[in-house]
Amino acid sequence: MIVGQGVLRGMLVTLKTFFQTYPWGRVLLRAIGITPSEGLVTIEYPDVKQQHAERFRVFPFLVYDKSPDDLRCVSCKICEQECPPACIHIGGPAKDAQGRPLKVYGRTYPTEFFIDTSICMSCRICVDVCPFDAIEMDNAYELSAEDRKPAMLLDKAALLKSNEYFQRIKPEEAAQVDARLAAKAAKAAPPQAPSTPSST
Amino acid sequence: MTSLDQLFVSGKAAALQLAARVLPEAVIPWLSILITIGAIAALAPLVMMYLTWIERKIIARMQNRFGPTRVGVYGLLQPISDGVKMLIKEDIVPRGADRLLHTLAPILAVAPAILLFAVMPIGRNMIAADLNVGLLYVFAVSSVSSYAIFMGGWASRSKFSMLGAMRSVAQIISYEVPGVISVVTVIMVTGTLSLVGIVEAQAARWFIFTPWGFVAAAIFFLSGIAEVNRTPFDMPEAESELVGGFHTEYSGMKFALWYMAEFLEAFAVCAFMTTFFLGGWHGPAVPFWAAALLLAVLVATAQRLPVPARAVGTLILLGAGVLWGFEPIPSWMWFLTKTYALIFVLVWLRGTFPRLRIDQLMGLAWKFLLPLGMLNILAAGFWVVFPFPAGTLVSLGILVPGAWLLVRANAPAPLAARRTYVLAD
To answer: For residue A11, which residues of chain B lie inside 8 Å, CB to CB?
Structure first.
């Protein structure tokens, strides 16, 4: 055993790391027969953004299908009750002067819908409990604002995002949700148009 | 090419000549002193600022990071931004601290670090004061910083500062001994204490290429790192143990002054290492055209490189060999190149090694470096007395077995493969 072998080996490791972070250093390392490993791993955040996994989630949004008034939410308030930090507030469902529920596209709808960004803990429980797949998790994470209200207290207009957006940011999950909704629609369809056994 | 070599010297002379036309005769020597002091006082903070940048960049690259990138191109304005930040920060003095000493300590730390620049032979004729006891001056002045550190640690009235300061004094005093002893060999061989004399003695051969010089350089560099409290010998400011060590209670510009002292001393260690062992302002004593030819042949026959790169590299090296005849590289450039290369080594060591334990630190100084330095004096003596082949062989014959014995003697006891703990019944 040569004295100082470990010291020299350690120093060579750091020197190799130093060189492999430069393009010319990588050329140099290859020229002397060393295969450089990955090199710089820093993602320079404001300039370059990291590619997140599909399951990456930050803050919920409300899904609408064709137009912003065609939202899936029926104002059942399950998410409001389940939300652990209680950051959701739902007003509604919308009613007319006689107290009968108003419907758009055959569904009741909330008059107001607030989620407080500064309280939400990104737990996704609201998404799990929603029977209508009306609320989904977004992956936009630059949510900082200069004041808490109203900028961080998002209202219904700010929360609404289209199903196309959902399909774009989370293709796999959106496909599952769409399949589930299609199945539900197919199951809901027969009673409205009953088919007689004789007709087949 | 002497004009480039003497650029700064002749620049100063020209300025003095201009001044002599308007100013009385008696003022000119004072003006000369003022110019030199002004240059050092202006350049020292600049050197320090960019040392922090260099260090942060190199360390970052060794850890697969970028280092400073946001302020200016490649983060080049980062030191200035840091300086402004330090200036506008609140200066906090702990309650119960000795206010006078607390303020005085960082100033006392920076002063000797800048004083060291006075005897730095940066180039041919480029030395502020060629003292005939220059080497003694270096060690005398650099050891003042231990007073400053202890003063700062004591005045802060904080346990961490106090512990850091005590460690620092123990460490600096311990490492000064092998440091001085290693340089004794240089004095023996050159017979002078003047730094210019030492550099001129290395015109034909850098001392690091002799057996005793190599050992002395290693001892000097290690003790130098320990004296300026840098990783892996940064016991006095061990973040993980002592928060900040002696500068725990410092903030704002006083904290910046501590850092300035530390970086300037690190620069001085590298500069004096260059002066004592790496030939100072001399280029390599090997005829460069021979080296260039050898490199050209090596590049031309390198199988791994692509053919155009080989052709271009060979031509460049041959051209460099021809150019060398005109001595294109000025002496101050050689000195600064070697110094900054050593600074790279300093940062490289910091990027590689973890901090030593205090007993390992003291053991290295007293049980390894000190006896090796003593042996080295003997080896240097033989090297001086005997002519070339015999002297080198005898000093090698002393140093190699000596170093081996010291390593064996200091080897840690092997751990028992299995420890048995006897617990109380």
So the answer is: 348-349, 352
Tokens 């005769």, located at residue: B25
Give the dihedral of Cα atoms B317, B320, B321, B327; nearest 10 deg.
Answer: -160
* Secondary-structure percent of chain A, ordered helix, strand, coil, rounded to 5: 35, 15, 50
Using the Cβ of B159 and the Cβ atoms of chain A, whether some distance falls under 8 Å is answered with no
B164, B153 Cβ separation under 8 angstroms: yes
**Cross-chain CB nearest to B352 (options A11, A21, A41):** A11
* Closest in A14, A30, A44 to B62, CB measured: A14
Check: CB of residue A113 under 8 Å from CB of residue A93: no
Token pair in block for residue B393: 């062989």
Q: How far apart are CA B339 and CA B108, in angstroms?
A: 25
For B54, the 3-state DSSP assignment is helix
Helix, coil or strand: residue B303 = coil
pLDDT at A192: 56
Q: Cα-flanking dihedrals φ and ψ of residue A182, to 5°? A: -65, -40
Residue B345 to chain A, least CA–CA distance (Å): 10
Judged by CB atoms closer than 8 Å, whether chains meet at B304 and A15 is answered as no
Q: Which residue has the higher pLDDT, B244 or B40?
A: B40
CB B107 within 8 Å of CB B260:
no
Q: Which candidate from A3, A38, A39 shows the least CB-CB separation from B407?
A: A3
Look at residues B128, B275, B109 and name the one whose alpha carbon lies nearest to residue B192: B275
Residue A181 DSSP one-character state: H
The helix or strand, by DSSP H or E, that contains position A62, with its residue range, turns out to be: strand A59-64
Q: Cβ A31–B302 below 8 Å, yes or no?
A: yes
Strand partners, A101: A95
Query: Which residues in chain B are contacts of A40 at CB distance < 8 A?
Result: 64-66
Q: Which residues contact B172 (CB under 8 A, 6 or more apart)?
A: B143, B145, B146, B149, B226, B227
Q: What secondary structure does DSSP assign to B152-178, as a single string?
A: HHHHTT-HHHHHHHHHHHHHHHHHHHH
Distance CA B313, CA B383 (A): 40
Q: How far is B349 from chain A (nearest CA, A)?
A: 7
Tokens of A135: 């609320």
Residue at token pair 């299609």: A182
B66 CB neighbours in chain A (<8 A) are: 40, 42, 44
Contact between chains at A42 and B64 (C-beta distance less than 8 A): yes
What digits encode the pLDDT tens for the residues B97-114? Answer: 888 888 888 998 888 888
Contact status, residue A52 vs residue A150, Cβ threshold 8 Å: no
Contacts of B304 in chain A (CB under 8 A): 30-33
Instruction: Specify the 3-state DSSP secondary structure of A197.
Output: helix
Q: What is the pLDDT along chain A (200 residues), one digit of tens a residue?
A: 566 788 888 888 888 888 888 888 888 888 787 787 887 888 888 888 888 888 888 889 988 888 888 888 888 889 889 999 998 999 878 888 888 888 888 888 888 889 888 888 988 899 999 888 889 898 888 888 888 877 888 888 888 888 888 888 888 888 888 888 888 888 876 665 555 555 44
- The torsion angle over the Cα atoms of residues B210, B215, B216 and B222, rounded to 10 degrees, is 140
Please tell me the distance from the alpha carbon of residue B314 to that of residue B369, in angstroms, as a whole number.
44
Say which DSSP state A34 is in.
Answer: -
This prediction's pTM: 0.78
Q: Which residue of B has its CA nearest to A31?
A: B304
ipTM of model: 0.75
